[in-house]
Amino acid sequence: MRVDIYSKPSCSLCEKALAVVEEVRARLPFELYITDIRQSPELFETWRYDIPVVLIEGEPVFKHRVDAEVLEARLRGVMNGTPIAKTVGQDG
Fold first, then answer.
1. Structure confidence by residue, pLDDT tens digits, 59-91
2. How far apart are CA 45 and CA 51, in angstroms?
3. At a CB cut-off of 8 Å and minimum separation 6, what does 52 contact?
4. Does the pTM of the predicted model rise above 0.90?
5. Cis ω on the peptide bond leading into residue 52 (within 30° of 0)?
6. Engineered SS bond to 66: which of 10, 20, 25, 48, CB 3.0-4.6 Å?
C-alpha cells in the first residue's frame, strides 16, 4: 500500500503530519513517499495553500492535519478492499 505526503521544507504542519504518519506506519507498514511540491509546477499550483496533503493509493484523504486513528482506519479499510471515503473538511 502506498501513502504519499505532499509537503515542502520549513513547513511545521508538514512535520507534524509526517510524525503522525510515521506513528501509524510503526503499527501498520506501508510504502511512504514524501514529495516536495516545489519540484513540480502542477503540484505547486494545485496544493500550495493546502499542504501537507496525505494521499492513500493516489487519493487525497487529509490536508493540513492528520488524525492517527482516522488514518489507521482508512489504511485498514483499503487493506480490506474498502474504497476510500472522503472526510468532510479534510479532503482536497
1. 999 999 999 999 999 999 998 876 655 554 554
2. 11
3. 5, 6, 7, 11, 13, 14, 17, 18, 62, 63, 64, 66
4. no
5. yes
6. 20
Query: Are 34 and 43 a contacting pair, CB within 8 Å?
Result: no
Instruction: Determine contact, residues 71/54, Cβ cutoff 8 Å.
Output: yes
Backbone region of residue 32 per phi and psi (left: phi > 0; alpha: psi in -120 to 50; beta: other values) = beta
Summarised one tens digit per residue, pLDDT across range 15-56 is 999 999 999 999 999 999 999 999 999 999 999 999 999 999
